[in-house]
Amino acid sequence: MGFARTCSVALVGVEGVVVEVQAGLERGVAAFTLVGLPDKSLVESRDRVRAAVVNSGEEWPQRKLTVGLSPASVPKGGSGFDLAVAGAVLAAAGRVDPAAIADLVLIGELSLDGRVRPVRGVLPAVIAAAEAGYRQVVVPEPTAGEAALVPGVSVLGVRSLRQLIAVLGDEPVPEEEPLPEGSPDPALAGLTVPGAGAGTGLASAPVSPGGPDLADVAGQRTARRALEIAAAGAHHLLLHGPPGAGKTLLAERLPGVLPPLTRQEALEVTAVHSVAGILPPGQPLVNTPPYCAPHHSATMPSLVGGGNGLPRPGAVSLAHRGVLFLDETPEFATKVLDALRQPLESGHVVVARSGGVVRLPARFLLVLAANPCPCGRHTLNGGGCECPPSAIRRYQARLSGPLLDRVDLRVRVDPVHRDDLLGPSGRGESTTVVAARVRAARERAAERLRDTPWTVNSEVPGHELRTRWPLAPGALAAAERDLERGLLTARGLDRVLRVAWTVADLAGRDRPGDEDIALALELRTGVARGVPLPTRG
């Protein structure tokens, strides 16, 4: 009896579990049995592996073959186990030294002709292998750059099963015939899910010189100031006002103001995008904040994650470490909007399905845009709004109180004045200038929070803000009055404190003063506090 083992990785959400692939040959009628809780696509690997081995010039063992995937209790799916199954079978048959593959992690799909096709989720799979102590992985060549992002792991990219056999047997590695220049590579189809990017409104941060610039936004000094505060402290933002005032224009420019992702953040984002199948080929690392703007007809599974079997990442996870923009927010289903309450508080979403429970990262900056009524002309002088009061109340009530209580900044965006739109005075600062101030404010916050588990002001619990970094006596007097009058909840008071610290960081002050608290209150409650905006741009 021949026996060999190697390893691969099963993905559960965006987390990986190392799976031992065992192959055993014994006397009996030739048969191929695959056990270990495989799904349909994995069961079909029996035919793919057999054809790939034969078409690679190797002999298929004519004995009873059993391939086991351990642990058997973990659901396993996808075609990424093909390469590991083929390696274990060839080692059990004596074509490859079993010791040569025992400590390898093999990830990849096999074509019938023996070529190795790329699969989604290589980065989280290699991360799981490294955390389990494995130091050598074999992946399809197009995803070798993605796998190489994990430190301390030796990565081998192969184009075919023939190349893998040659490397393991210390034989000359055959050269695979390259595709004609300019012809499409069908193997790259395994890296993306058709329509996934378009369906979620996903785009990279517009930081290129020709991308959207804040200088394009005419007027709107208050909204621009709120956008800067939101970026500096990662505070959630609501923009409400009539159509055409610039709400979407502002939201689309927010990712360009955010600082570039740190190495750890970039790995987190890349892992999610790799699993979702929206990682652009040739771009192994996403280092700019993502921007996700789903349509208002989005369902709950598409927003928070779901699908058949084990849940897949939704829009809140695709916007991890970036911006989630919900345009025409009252048009979203109420249950869909209320599903955002958990990730807004915890920074992750837990999705339970019959196939299992998955924890997905979801620490995003939420931007909501809403009209004042169904026709959008309710607040305009002479706008001709004919919506009945009951319709206006129902429309505005679609944004529930518990959801709005988690939004730090609520800004009214009025129509642009003619002088701001056509005159030179309406042009504001560019994205580059604002982004520099945002980076400086984040550095000040990071220095203050250096010995804590938090990095931005929006993450700091209110109790810590009130005890570890107390304000000057009497600075909270206005906020305390609003709390007593019912204009603020306890959560709202904490969020006012966080915004005030961000305002102070932008101004270069050591701690918030009366004006910082007043501005934070004005941006949350909409009640004017007589705080002048800084004259910029």
Automatic annotation (TrEMBL):
<dbReference type="Pfam" id="PF13541">
    <property type="entry name" value="ChlI"/>
</dbReference>
<dbReference type="Pfam" id="PF01078">
    <property type="entry name" value="Mg_chelatase"/>
</dbReference>
<dbReference type="InterPro" id="IPR014721">
    <property type="entry name" value="Ribsml_uS5_D2-typ_fold_subgr"/>
</dbReference>
<dbReference type="InterPro" id="IPR000523">
    <property type="entry name" value="Mg_chelatse_chII-like_cat_dom"/>
</dbReference>
<protein>
    <submittedName>
        <fullName>Magnesium chelatase</fullName>
    </submittedName>
</protein>
<dbReference type="InterPro" id="IPR020568">
    <property type="entry name" value="Ribosomal_Su5_D2-typ_SF"/>
</dbReference>
<dbReference type="InterPro" id="IPR045006">
    <property type="entry name" value="CHLI-like"/>
</dbReference>
<dbReference type="InterPro" id="IPR025158">
    <property type="entry name" value="Mg_chelat-rel_C"/>
</dbReference>
<dbReference type="InterPro" id="IPR027417">
    <property type="entry name" value="P-loop_NTPase"/>
</dbReference>
<dbReference type="InterPro" id="IPR003593">
    <property type="entry name" value="AAA+_ATPase"/>
</dbReference>
<feature type="domain" description="AAA+ ATPase">
    <location>
        <begin position="233"/>
        <end position="417"/>
    </location>
</feature>
<feature type="region of interest" description="Disordered">
    <location>
        <begin position="172"/>
        <end position="213"/>
    </location>
</feature>
<dbReference type="GO" id="GO:0005524">
    <property type="term" value="F:ATP binding"/>
</dbReference>
<dbReference type="Pfam" id="PF13335">
    <property type="entry name" value="Mg_chelatase_C"/>
</dbReference>
